[in-house]
Description:
Elements: E1 4-13, H1 16-27, E2 30-33, E3 39-42, E4 49-54, E5 65-71, E6 81-82, E7 92-95, E8 101-106, E9 115-122, H2 125-136, E10 139-143, E11 146-150, E12 159-164, E13 175-181, H3 187-193, E14 196-199, E15 208-211, E16 217-221
Parallel strand pairs: 1-4, 5-8, 9-12, 13-16
Antiparallel strand pairs: 1-13, 2-3, 3-4, 5-9, 6-7, 7-8, 10-11, 11-12, 14-15, 15-16
Protein name: VOC family protein
Pfam families: Glyoxalase_6 (PF18029)
InterPro entries: Glyas_Bleomycin-R_OHBP_Dase, Glyoxalase_6
Amino acid sequence: MALVTYKALCIDASDVSAVQGFWARTLGYELAELDDGDAVLRGPDPGEEVWINLVPEPRTVKQRVHLDVRAESLEPFAGLEQLTAPGEFAWTTFADPEGGEMCVFTYDEPPAKRLKDVVVDSADHETISRWWADVMGGVLGHDDGYSYLDEIPGSPLESIDFVPVPEPKTVKNRIHWDVTLREGVTVDDLVGAGANVLAPAGDQQEWTVMADPEGNEFCVFPTP
Length: 224
């Protein structure tokens, strides 16, 4: 039985004002600026929520977690640095306003939903994808050297893709997802499944910051 339910995506930014409008336009979500310096983007359907969180540290390395998005053309991204050559892949990779990698898939018809996938660099893609399938639910598949988790309950994503890379994780991920504990499940159950507590919930925050077995951060909210 799954232990948690998908809740939201979070993107770290050292300059929230530089990225909040970009991601709102790219995803087609409504932007709300918050008094604490953060911002939240919301779409019309459940689970369509992306938090832009202010952090002190700048991006310094290739992101181990990035977003894939859908678009009718590459024209909206013309002002960004393009990291792959035209036609090199089925997607085009750009650097967002803070330099974070993102991939754009184009379609002949305007896509109804622009957020497509979350892609996670992995040391052992089969093992970590299986772990998340057990913890969060969804339909697990393996294809052409990578693993993917489709039909995640409560998620607006087409999939979370886990792809093999040779380099190890060295810094905190700048993109992560939040989850909510299912009824009767505790943080201790996640620890028992192989996660680690990085920062416990307390008076200043209702969520617990955890890491999966490969060190990818995620935040765990209590059962409503």
